[in-house]
Amino acid sequence: KGMEVAVHAIGDLAFEKVLNAIEKHPPRNGRHDRLIHAQVLDDELIEKAARMPIALDLQPHFVASDFPWVIDRLGKDRMNTAFAWKTLMSKGILCAGGSDAPIEPVDPLLGIQSAVLRKSSHEVNGPSYNESECLTVYEAIKLYTEGSAGIIYKEKTRGKIAEGYDADFTVLSNDPFTIDPAQLHLLDIKKTVINGQIVYEK
Length: 202
Prior knowledge:
By secondary structure, this protein is of the alpha/beta class. It has a single domain (6-161), classed as Alpha-Beta Barrel (TIM Barrel). Helices cover 33% and strands 16% of the residues. The strands form 2 sheets. It has a 4-stranded parallel β-sheet. The protein has a 3-stranded antiparallel β-sheet with strand order 5-6-7, with no helix packed on it. A hairpin with a 2-residue loop joins β6 and β7 (197-201). α7 (108-117) runs antiparallel to α8 (137-144). The N and C termini lie far apart (45 Å).
């Protein structure tokens, strides 16, 4: 029908099958198909994905809920390219951040924090998993703002505070770029504005 598709693909075989289908039936020029999750990949699939008209809908909070038990399920070798958001973004693939609610908490601050820290919620003072894949706070926030706007083709009107863009923004209780990232989940939402209208105020 000429429409783009959005497909859930957590495992590497599912991801490979979707990429093969997109190769045979690509979206219209200037459009992209969306793959949701993209959690278990390998180097070959990442390189192939980077050459294709796709965007990735990622859920960083899965690190907090899936580690450390996911290591036993996948094996240490496959973990090198699993949950590899920094690598995927570095390849120029359009990526957006989301929650997968109600499976994970809907709070975007938790997802942003998970992308930055990559720590398990099951381990008090545990390690960061695949630390080389940790995003900066800026990269993580961009994933949820510019990335989320781009994945729905609103990159010229939403996702950043700029002239000509919709006035969509949230006012936080502190500066997320200067506080300890371990405190990101404690930030209060003071005000939310959508298209210039205050829709929430504490």
